Amino acid sequence: EDQVTQSPEALRLQEGESSSLNCSYTVSGLRGLFWYRQDPGKGPEFLFTLYSAGEEKEKERLKATLTKKESFLHITAPKPEDSATYLCAVRIVSGYALNFGKGTSLLVTP
Amino acid sequence: DTGVSQNPRHKITKRGQNVTFRCDPISEHNRLYWYRQTLGQGPEFLTYFQNEAQLEKSRLLSDRFSAERPKGSFSTLEIQRTEQGDSAMYLCASSTTGTGEDEQFFGPGTRLTVL
Fold it and tell me: Residue B1's pLDDT band (boundaries 50, 70, 90)?
């Protein structure tokens, strides 16, 4: 069965303290891996799509990478406004649904 | 440039009542998805439309749930005989075909509370 596991569940960082979030996946035929950001009470906001091992995408302080078993979301010198839940999702070749992990709740303190 | 919109934003109902939610996708998007999210969990897929055709349904979508997209534009999700376990955030997403087709853009959600 397809599985997406995110770690840690929660992460607290000081402003400027870089770190990484992990997304491990087990799927039968990966079409794409997706990262979203979700603020409390709002819908997920699209960040990145990754398709193949070795691929990297960057946006401001965020960089997403992909291997055959996992993806990392690296956050460089985070700011308090980066505080949110970060969701990882996969889509298989034969379907249209996104299968989400439970997310990592990130808190960045000044 | 408007994103995905959902109405109502909040709904409180009593157990056993029927509720209906509406989703208006991004105007040029012909693919539409419904998800459900409970506290501390990621969104769970419910169903998928391409234009007016419902092409994929999750096992989560019991016979009390029905979704429609009659003209390939907006969509409705109806829950009949609501139960307390139906309390959740109901999210709608849309995507295009062709370039960028894998990127699903989400609306703000409808939060349902069943008393």
Answer: low
